[in-house]
């Protein structure tokens, strides 16, 4: 079974993940742009039972445009978000794809909030576009 490790910059907080992601997506919304510092966010969702966390994290709860809450856990030393949980979907855990630092990670199949997409960004052929 594939084993992958997502980690913050300093290595203090990490998530050890077994198996393939349930879903890989990118989100162009402004909240995700602010969270990541990038022009879009890329995240992979795994069953919670497939993820083992080690280290200490600080939690930040973000309330989305439609009232949904997500709990982001970041390293208090270097500030990198290593995982998050979405309210109502606590059976799975989302991990920013960049935290794996692995260029062979599966490509996203969903692209969300494209009305906020920077005009110079283009998405891969065949990706599913969602509002
Ligand atoms: Zn860190
Ligand atoms: Zn977003």
Identify the notable features of this structure and list them briefly.
single chain; 3-stranded antiparallel sheet; binds zinc ion; mainly beta
What this model shows, in words?
By secondary structure, this protein is mostly beta strands. It contains 1 helix and 11 strands; from the N terminus they run E-E-E-H-E-E-E-E-E-E-E-E. The protein has one helix spanning 30-36, and strands at 3-7, 14-18, 23-27, 41-47, 51-54, 58-63, 69-74, 81-86, 92-96, 110-112, 128-130. It has a 5-stranded mixed β-sheet with strand order 9-4-3-10-11. A hairpin with a 6-residue loop joins strand 7 (69-74) and strand 8 (81-86). One zinc ion (ZN) binds next to loops.
Q: Helical stretch count? A: 1
What are the secondary-structure elements, in order, as H or E? EEEHEEEEEEEE
- How much of the sequence lies in strands comes to 35-45%
Topology, number of strands: 11
Judged by helices, strands and strand pairing, the structural class is: mainly beta
Short description:
By secondary structure, the chain is mainly beta. The protein has one helix at residues 30-36, and strands at residues 3-7, 14-18, 23-27, 41-47, 51-54, 58-63, 69-74, 81-86, 92-96, 110-112, 128-130.
Write the layout of secondary structure elements.
Blueprint: E1 3-7, E2 14-18, E3 23-27, H1 30-36, E4 41-47, E5 51-54, E6 58-63, E7 69-74, E8 81-86, E9 92-96, E10 110-112, E11 128-130
Parallel strand pairs: 3-10, 10-11
Antiparallel strand pairs: 1-2, 2-5, 3-4, 4-9, 6-7, 7-8
Bound molecules: zinc ion (2 copies).
